[in-house]
Amino acid sequence: MTLKQMPESKMDTGASNIDSPDIPVERGVSSEHGPGAVVFDDVSFSYGDRPVLRHINLKIAPDEFVAVLGANGSGKSTLAKHINALLVPTHGRVRVEGMDTADAQHVNDCRRCAGMVFQNPDNQTVASIVRDDVAFGPENLGLSPEQIKQRVDDALATVAMRSHANDEVYSLSGGQKQRVAIAGVLAMQPHILILDEPGAMLDMRGRRGITRVAHELNDQGMTVVLITHFMEDALGADKVVVLDQGEIAMEGAPREVFIDAERLQELRLELPFSVKLAEDLRNQGIQVGLGLDEEALEEELCQLFLNR
């Protein structure tokens, strides 16, 4: 995937300056072997005698944005680690772009296809200087210095961190460190970006910035799997998957999942704030939409106020 510079001033506007991926992917195509495709086929996984995933059947299409929700201990991170072969099923099979993750011959290829960013960016830091940290992956691919420099510059520009290329990693804020971790994955040019609770250690502004980067990448052809316990992060997803005790309890588009407040409550999850607000307003006879789009809800309320 070729990345293009994103001025840091555009980080807060949502503007996208990322080139399309080198391998064209038609949005919505559900090919199980296409770039960015992932298939879980009756996958179960146990840590010793403790089951963590139970009979997971899930298809992630190329170019799809999937948000995985669930209470603590539901199996979210374990599911994520199966996508890039950090874990392999106890039973069943995971295929990434048609490759079986349990096949030792395909492990490295699976990890090149699917890059993972962890909750704590400090756990992914391998060098003291930002540029060197992002270059670590490409250097291990045997690329030329010119190619490595180009990948590093492009990846840092994509997450609006190019001006920090020569900074020491420890001097950065938590949100900046997380962007550097994402840049390190992007420099490997994967088709799939897995974000394992990237905003867990960030404030709301930092978390929204990371989510915005993920959507910009997805808009340009990258499959994104976002593991999160922040319900708001799932509003813009193509598909929402809710795990409970290692099983898929709910699956569908955001409007299909978040309409069922009672079921979510049973799963120890709350509605996103905008969805809950819209529901409360409708219960009081105020006609508004579902609240899946915060800006649209705000506009609806402004119109209602002006028409009073």
What does the model show?
The protein is globular. The longest helix has 16 residues, at 204-219. The strands form two sheets. A six-stranded mixed sheet has the order 6-7-8-3-9-10, with helices on both faces. It has a four-stranded antiparallel sheet with strand order 2-1-4-5, covered by helices on one side. The model is unreliable at 1-30 (pLDDT under 50). Helices cover 33% and strands 20% of the residues. A hairpin with a 2-residue loop joins strand 4 and strand 5 (99-100). It folds into two domains: 8-264, 3-Layer(aba) Sandwich (Rossmann fold); 272-308, no CATH class. It is an alpha/beta fold. The chain is built from ten helices and ten strands.
β-sheet strand percentage: 15-25%
In N-to-C order, the SSE pattern is EEEHEEHEHHHEHEEEHHHH
The CATH fourth-level homologous superfamily of the largest domain:
P-loop containing nucleotide triphosphate hydrolases
| Helical coverage, percent range | 25-40%
- Poorly predicted parts: 1-30
Number of domains: 2
Q: How many whole angstroms does the radius of gyration measure?
A: 20 Å
Average pLDDT confidence is 86
Q: What is the first-to-last residue Cα distance? A: 51 Å
Question: Which CATH class of the largest domain?
Answer: Alpha Beta
Which fold name corresponds to the CATH topology of the largest domain? Rossmann fold
- What overall form do the CA principal axes indicate? globular
What's the number of extended β-strand segments? 10
- Class per helix and strand makeup: alpha/beta
The name of the CATH architecture of the largest domain is 3-Layer(aba) Sandwich
The number of distinct helices, counting runs of at least 4 residues, comes to: 10
Largest sheet: 6 strands, mixed
Strand order within the widest beta sheet: 6-7-8-3-9-10
